[in-house]
Amino acid sequence: MEDGVLIAPAPYSASSAYYFPTIARMEALEVLKGSSQVQYGPFTTGGAINMISSQIPTEFGGKVRASYGSFNSKQLHTKIGGSNNTFGYMVEYLNYGSYGFKTLPSGKNTGFNKNDFVAKFAVNLFQNASVKQSLEFKFQYADEVGNETYLGLSETDFNENPFFRYASSNEDKMTTEHTQYMITHKAEFSKNIRLTTTAYRNNFARNWYKLDAVTLNGNRQSLASILEDPNTFSEYYDVVRGTVNSNPDAIGIKANNRKYYAQGIQSKLDYHWYKGDVFHDLEIGLRYHYDEEDRFQWVDGYSISNAGDLMLTTAATPGTDANRITSANAFASFVTYKLKYKNWTFTPGVRYENITLKREDFGTNDVNRTGTNLAIRENNVGIFIPGMGANYRFDNRFSLFGGIHKGFSPPGNQEGQEPEESINYELGTRFNLYGVSGEFVGFFNDYSNLLGSDLAATGGTGSLDQFNAGEVNVSGIELLLNYNFAKKDAKIALPFSFGYTFTNTEFQNSFSGADSFWGTVAAGDELPYIPKHQFNVSFSLEHSTFEINVNGRFNGEFRTLAGKGSIPDNERVNSNFVVDMSGKYYVNKQLSLTTNIINLLDETYAASRVPAGLRPGHPFGAYAGLEFRF
Length: 630
Known about the structure:
Layout: E1 26-32, E2 48-53, E3 61-69, E4 73-83, E5 87-98, E6 112-125, E7 132-146, H1 155-160, E8 173-188, E9 193-216, E10 219-222, H2 223-228, H3 234-241, E11 251-275, E12 278-304, E13 310-314, E14 322-341, E15 344-361, E16 375-395, E17 398-409, E18 420-433, E19 436-453, E20 466-484, E21 495-507, E22 533-542, E23 546-555, E24 558-559, E25 572-573, E26 576-586, E27 591-598, E28 606-608, E29 615-616, E30 621-629
Antiparallel strand pairs: 1-2, 3-4, 3-30, 4-5, 5-6, 6-7, 7-8, 8-9, 9-10, 9-11, 11-12, 12-13, 12-14, 14-15, 15-16, 16-17, 17-18, 18-19, 19-20, 20-21, 21-22, 22-23, 23-26, 24-25, 26-27, 27-30, 28-29
C-alpha cells in the first residue's frame, strides 16, 4: 500500500505488473505481521507493508538532494512545503537513472531513467465547528524508460563475463507511466472517535518490448531451454548471441503492451475509550474496489546478423498475440478490537472479502474487438478471514506474544477455482535485557491450498493463470538483536543490529503436468526460490557531525525447481554475502555531504536463474552527493 491505498496496478485481477512506488520519496514504512494484518487485504498471509509518502510539513521548509556515481548513476530529489491553521501543501520531484552495469555489443545504454512527481494540498474545514474536519488531495505522476531484458546468460558465459548481454536483447525496453489521484476526508467527532474516508484512482500503462523466443525451420524454442542446454540447441544459441546470419523472423520480440487501472473508496472508523483500568480500541472498515488489466500485445519478427545487428523483418498487428481484459469487483470489510487490561493485550479481528473476477478474451483474430470470437469466464468468492493475537508484558524488559490468523489470496478468474488459504501461527518474545533488545519468533504456515501463478518472470508462459499446488507447510524462526556498544554518556553511538531468518518448506502432495515450471513435485519436496538461511548485520558509528554505516546481507542458496536434498548445479542459485557502506558528514544544520558504496567487496554473484539464464547482482559501485535542507 501507499498511504493506506492498494498500490499494485490491478491488485485483485493482475497483481504482478512491474510497478513499485519509488522508495526514495517515502518518509516512513509500516510493516504489519501476524493476526493484526486481517484489516489489510486481499492478501493476508505473509504481512502487509504500507509506504508513507512525504507528508505536508507543519511549517515552511524543503530540501534538495543530489548524488552521482558509478555507471553514470544520478539522482535529484527536491521538495518544498508548508502549512498554517487553514491550508497546507507539499510539492516534490524526483529524477534518477543510470547507464546500467551490463554491457551490450552495440554499446547501448542498459540502464534506466525515471521521473516522479507528487503534490499534496490540505485544508482544514469549518474551524469553529464542534467536529474537526479536513480534506487532503494527492496527485502523483511517474514515468520510466528502462533498457532491461528477461534474457540472462548460459552457465559458461556467466562464468566468463557475468555483466555481458547478448546482442539479441539489444532492442529490449520497458516504458511505463503511472498516475494516482487521492482525496481523503477526516472527521474527528471527539478525541475518541475519528472517521477517515479515501477515494482513489490509480492508472498504469506499460509496454515491455522484449525478446520472447527463437524460431528456426518452424520450430520454436524458449530462451530458458536454449540457455539451459546451449549444446543441444547450438543453432538457436548462436542466434541469441548474434554470431550467425539468421533467417527473417527468427527472433520474436514481444510488445507486452498493457493498461491498468484501479479505483475505489474506503472508510475506517476508529473509536477508542477507557473504562476503569481497561483500554478499548474498535476499528471498523469498508472498501469497494474495482480494477482491470487490458492486454493488447503483439510479436514482431527480426533477423540478426553475425555482427549482432537486429533488423525488423515483420511488423505484427497490435492485438494479435494477446487481446483480453481481466477485471475484478471487490467488496471488503473488517472489524478489529484491541483490549488492554493490566499486562494483557488481546487483538481479535475478522475480515470479509467478496470478489467477482472476470476475463473477456476477444481472441487474436479480432483486434477491433467486435466481439465475434468473445470468450468470457467468471469466478466468484466470498470468505471470512479471522485472526486473534495476544500479548503478555511481564515488565518493561520482557513480553510474550502469539497469534493465529487465516491466510488468504484471491483465486484466478477460472470458474470454480478456489482461493489460496492457510492457517498461520506465531509465538514469540520481545525483550530488553542487559542492554540487548530484540525479538525471537517462531512461525508455522499451514497451507490447505497454495496457489502458484504462471508468470513469465518465474519461467512460465506469462498467462498469469493460477494453479493449485495443494497442501504446503512453511515453518521457521526469526531473530532480531540490537545493541549499542558505546556508553550512555559517550559522545558517539555504536549501534549494532543482527537479524536472522530460517525458513523450512515442504509440499504435502505430489503433482506435475501443466505446472511443470515448478518441476515434477513429490510430497516432501521443498518449494523453489526460498533460501533456508538469510541474515542481515549492521554496525554504525554515529557522532553529532558525522555517521558511518556498514551493512552486510546474506542470502542462502535456493533451488529453482522443487526438490529435496542437495540441489543440482543447474537448479541452484548459490549463496552470496554482500557488504554495503554509507556515510554522512554534517557541514552545518542545513548542509550535509553523503557517500554510498554498494557491494564494497565487489562480490560477483547470481541473483536468479529465471526467467531465462543467470542474471548478476549489482557489482561494486560508489556514489557521492549532498543534501541541503531549509
